[in-house]
Amino acid sequence: MRRTTAPAAGPAPARPGPRDAPEEANGVISGAGPAGPLTDRSGRPAAERDTLRLRQTPGRPDEPPRYAPEWLRLREPADAAARAHDLLDPLRTRLAELPTRADGLVVHDVGCGTGSMGRWLAPLLDGAQHWVLHDHDPYLLHFAAVAAPRAAADGSRVTVETRRGDLARLTPDALTGAALLTASALLDVLTGEQVGTLAAACAAAGCPALLTLSVAGRVDLTPAHPLDAEIADAFNEHQRRTGMLGPDAVDATAEAFTEHGATVRTHPSPWRLGPGETALTAQWLRGWVGAAVEQRPKLREPAARYLDERLAACAAGELRVVVHHTDLLASCRPTGGVS
């Protein structure tokens, strides 16, 4: 359910964990492929695994990896700049139709990582809010809770609760009373079945969903390079391994929500990386190329040269990258569950 090697086109935060992970409340706070790793000129692994993720538990190779907070912090400004503000007005309209609750809007953030979605969205919405942060990784949940926003757009109070658990356990009952479900950079690492479970739970609870920064399978690099297209194709194949939706995720999710009677809107949300984002661009390049090589080992030697050239251009401020994503807002029919 989570990437097991390099990050995706927009490397993702930690995901909900394996299906046998327990769901447990953690408290409330107020306010390398088979051919070996690709290396760049410095000899560092191209996917920078020590930076992008933490080690798995010894003896449990199938356990999803833990993504390092350093990587999530590095990408957070680009995520915030990319998310589609055009979806906020229809979201506000939907939320304004809900009955008033004493504790304000209840928002469930699935696969929250270090909580960047809440830090972006809570200050853009009026009214008191209570955020329920879901992730299988208690380490990331700690960061999310500590750095959570404390005030809404109009100064109203924002409170936070953390829950350790798995997306498969996100039932309609778990969403009872919820005004909104959110997730960021999550859909592309889900299977069709998991997306169906998510859509069914939201529809049954009458809970809208704002799902941001899903990879679209397209990357534009300037200046262009003859190997760009092959690297991109190999990366997209890597995204679809083990049944994950990868760049097909937004279409599959829109279809799943539509089948449950929801109104679905989508909007582009690309990263636009230039000379001011060289650290993020370099890290993304290592992960993007590393995943492509894991998928197609025959690319190893040309990809190593390609990576060196691209990193040099990045360091010189000569490389610009557009990593295409899509945001999705699904407005499910009210059921009376948010009362």
Question: Describe it for me?
Answer:
- The chain is an alpha/beta fold and about 350 residues long.
- Helix content is about 35%, strand content about 20%.
- The chain has 10 helices and 11 strands.
- The protein has helices at about 50, 70-80, 90-95, 115-120, 140-145, 190-205, 230-240, 250-260, 280-295, 300-315, and strands spanning about 25-30, 55, 65, 105-110, 130-135, 160-165, 180-185, 210-220, 265-270, 270-275, 320-330.
- The strands form 2 sheets. Strands 1, 4, 5, 6, 7, 8, 9, 10 and 11 form a 9-stranded mixed sheet that branches. A two-stranded antiparallel sheet has the order 2-3.
- Strand 5, helix 5 and strand 6 (about 160-165) form a beta-alpha-beta unit.
- The longest helix has 18 residues, at about 280-295.
- The chain is globular.
- Residues about 1-65 have low confidence and may be disordered.
